[in-house]
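Reopening: structure tokens for the nickel (II) ion complex, inputs below.
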Amino acid sequence: MATGPNRLQLVLAGLAAVAVAAAVGYWLLLPRMTQTAADLLGQGEYSLTGTDGTAFTEKTLRGAPSAVFFGFTHCPDVCPTTLGEIMDWQDEMSKVGDTLRFYFVSVDPDRDTLAVLRDYVSWVPGVTGVTGTPEETAKAIRAFRVYARKVPLDDGDYTMDHSAMVMLFDRKGRFFEPISYQEDPARALAKIKSLLAR
Ligand code: NI
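Re-run output (same inputs, fresh job):
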């Protein structure tokens, strides 16, 4: 009687080893692949100016957690709604003695001067307006992989189509998570809390 493993057992053991190797390889590779694009968010050579008088560059994102949102002051719906949501989040955070810094980056630098922006964001605590030259704005839009497009209106005026999410960054300036437009308030707040707890 043979006492060692038979041929079938050897084949099964071999298949199991291959499956484990494939699973480990996949597990090691997958986060690296999906993280690469996200890790680059906000990185780049743009230089804008904040309504607090400081420069807004990729370095701004380092040192403390932050949230970045792209919009414009003539926005009829998305931007006012988002600012209202930020107001609610800051309100909730203030109850536990916390606050998050928000950057409202204009995709419409021709109309959004620092003075216009300062007035626009003044009612929401912790929000800094950001604007600059059209060239630097375009660079920032690319760095954050957001979408923004000028749309002519019938009356000769124009509006802007733009991405409507809030991007969260950790204290090292690395992309953490997005908050979608009109996301469930409890869910959004949980993301902010987990960001601040990092
Ligand atoms: Ni908007």
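The first helix runs from residue 7 to 39. The mean pLDDT is 90. Marking as resolved unless the reporter disagrees.
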